[in-house]
Structures are given as C-alpha cells and as structure tokens.
C-alpha cells in the first residue's frame, strides 16, 4: 500500500471473508472474532445477533488478566439494540456483559435463565426462548459442546423472531452434521486418537472432563506456545493422562520441549522429549498400542501438524 503501512495480518483474512460472503450473496454469515472483540478486525459489522459463549483467560497481554477485563473486551461486539446470546454464567463476567447490553439497549438471552440444554451429544434436550426440542444429536464430542449447541439454537431462535425462515428440521440436521477440525476431533478408534486445540486453562479443563469419558487415560502429546499460561494448562490436563511426550510445533513462539518437560516434572510427572510433533506422535502411537489412547493438545499449531501427519499416514477413523 503506497503511502501507508501495510494492513495488519489479521485484517487481511477478515477482509477476504467479507468479500467472499458478498460475492456468494450469503443469506447468513457466521463471523468469529479472532482475539477479544472490541478491537478485533471482525468488529466492523452490525450483526443480527451477537453470541458470547463463555469467558476464559487467554491473550492476557491484549485483553487483560482478569475474567472481568476479558469480558469487557468480548462485550465489545455488542451493538446498540442488537440481541445478544451468552453461555457465560460466571457472576463477574456475566455482570460485565449484562451491563454492556443494558447500556446499549440490547436484549440479552442468558444460558440457565432464558434457555438451557440437558443431556450429552448423542442425545440432548433444548429448552429455549420460544421452543423445546428433544432427542437432539450432535456431531461434536464432549459435554461442553451441548452447552455451545444451546447457544447456537438460542441464536437461531433470535433469527427466527427477526423473520429468518429457519426450519427446526434444518437445525436438527445441522447439529447432527456439525464438524470442527481440531476440537476433540477423533482421528482413529483403534487406537483411539483425539486432537484438541486447547491452549488455555479453561480449554484444558474442558478437555480433561471430556477425556474422563474414555474410560482409559491417554498418552498425551503436548506442544504449547511460550506466551500461554503453561502451568495453568498443566494443572488441568496432567491428571487425565498416563504419560506425556513434550514436543514443539514449527512456530517461533513455541515453548521448547526441554523447558516444557521441566515444567511437567515440577508437577510430579515425567515427560519424554521429542523435538518434532511427527516424532512425538509416532512415539505416542507405539506406547499406546492398538487398544490404547492418544491425545494431542496444547496448541492449534501442534494439532495442525499432527492432523497433517495422520492424514498423510492414512490413519482412518474406524
């Protein structure tokens, strides 16, 4: 760009997405913020509905260290008079979201108060703003995804109130076919191999709860960015695994496997060191055996490399 600085890296894909939606004449576009909300590159639209799922500690350098500070940044996507759906029920963060919505005269729909969901992904019920649905099936695994699905359905209800023709049958089918690469994504059944991009303590806690349902502790392949709350992640995830392989994705922000191993040992667990994600995954598969389990986590970069290797190796979900 002549005479000015180049656009920020995160603004380019946002602009590409907006152009794509316009060219395809999308009826509804789902736009996810990249970091925070208030100053995010995506926060130039006036949405039909804003959705804030829940608040976790992440990107603290930019968003603040407390949940309330982060909630303030997230609430920056709320626009005057536009409805808001939230899956946050923590007293502090919710009060920030509620205060922002009230200030902007934006109708707020809160999980546990205006809508809820009970059950598990293979069969759950939704008690919503205007409707109740039973025997819903979700293509995503993990009990936390039922909560996320409830937020999605609440957003659908808001859109229906605004005149969008969204059939219940379509909503059911959408939930059933939902897929999200790198989010408790099962790559194989024998051995059981799951990839999850959890990269903060809240994500690690959610992953640990999902792993409890396996009935066996996995070999953990862990690679994290050095600027994350590594000790917080380890505290949540280490009790859920039987052994750990410390590794590092090809990213200059990565914590070195040796430094990560030292942190793991301070939590009373030994770690095998493998410099490359591919080698760590090979080792984990050997240690797990055909009847065991492997979990790759810590960063979307780590998960991305592992996913690429597994697909090239022809490992299939059975």
Low-confidence segments, ≥5 residues, pLDDT <50? none
N-to-C SSE string, H for helix and E for strand: HEHHEHEEEEHHEEHEHEHEHEH
Residues in helices, as a percent range: 25-40%
* Rounded radius of gyration (Å): 21 Å
What is the number of helices? Answer: 11
> CATH H level of the largest domain: which superfamily?
Mur-like, catalytic domain
What structural category characterises the helix and strand content? alpha/beta
In whole angstroms, the N-to-C terminal distance is 50 Å
Plain-language structure description:
The protein has 11 helices and 12 strands. By secondary structure, the chain is an alpha/beta fold. It has 2 domains: 166 residues, UDP-N-acetylmuramoyl-L-alanine:D-glutamate ligase, CATH 3.40.1190; 129 residues, Protein-Tyrosine Phosphatase, Chain A (Alpha-Beta Complex), CATH 3.90.190. The strands form 3 sheets. The chain has a 6-stranded mixed beta sheet, sandwiched between helices. A 3-stranded parallel beta sheet has the order 1-2-3, sandwiched between helices. A 3-stranded antiparallel beta sheet has the order 4-5-6, with helices on one face. Helix 3 packs parallel to helix 4. The protein is globular and about 55 Å long. The termini are far apart. The mean pLDDT is 92.
Structural key phrases:
318 residues; alpha/beta; UDP-N-acetylmuramoyl-L-alanine:D-glutamate ligase; Protein-Tyrosine Phosphatase, Chain A; 2 domains; 6-stranded mixed sheet; 3-stranded parallel sheet; 11 helices; 38% helix
């Amino acid at each position: 760009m002549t005479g000015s600085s180049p656009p920020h890296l995160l603004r380019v894909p946002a602009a590409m997405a907006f152009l794509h939606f316009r060219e395809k004449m999308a009826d509804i576009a789902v736009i996810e913020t990249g970091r925070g909300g208030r100053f995010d590159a995506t926060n130039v639209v006036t949405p039909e509905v804003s959705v804030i799922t829940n608040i976790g500690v992440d990107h603290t350098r930019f968003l603040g260290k407390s949940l309330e500070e982060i909630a303030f940044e997230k609430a920056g996507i709320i626009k005057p008079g536009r409805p808001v759906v939230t899956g946050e029920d923590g007293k502090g963060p919710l009060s920030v979201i509620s205060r922002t919505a009230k200030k902007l005269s934006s109708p707020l729909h809160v999980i546990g108060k205006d809508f809820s969901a009970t059950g598990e992904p293979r069969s759950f019920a939704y008690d919503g703003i205007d409707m109740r649905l039973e025997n819903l099936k979700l293509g995503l695994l993990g009990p936390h995804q039922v909560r996320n699905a409830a937020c999605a359905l609440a957003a659908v209800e808001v859109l229906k109130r605004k005149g969008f023709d969204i059939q219940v049958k379509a909503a059911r089918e959408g939930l059933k076919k939902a897929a999200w690469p790198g989010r408790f994504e099962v790559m194989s059944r024998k051995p059981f191999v799951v990839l999850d991009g959890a990269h903060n303590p809240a994500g690690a806690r959610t992953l640990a709860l999902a792993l409890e349902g396996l009935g066996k502790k996995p070999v953990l392949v862990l690679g994290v960015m050095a600027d994350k709350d590594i000790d917080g992640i380890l505290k949540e995830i280490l009790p859920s695994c039987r052994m750990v392989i410390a590794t590092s994705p090809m990213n200059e922000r990565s914590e070195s496997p040796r430094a990560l191993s030292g942190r793991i040992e301070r939590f009373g667990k030994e770690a095998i060191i493998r410099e490359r994600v591919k080698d760590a995954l090979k080792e984990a598969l050997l240690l797990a055996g055909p009847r065991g389990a492997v979990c790759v986590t810590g960063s979307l970069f780590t998960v991305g490399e592992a996913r690429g290797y597994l697909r090239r190796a022809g490992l299939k979900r059975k």
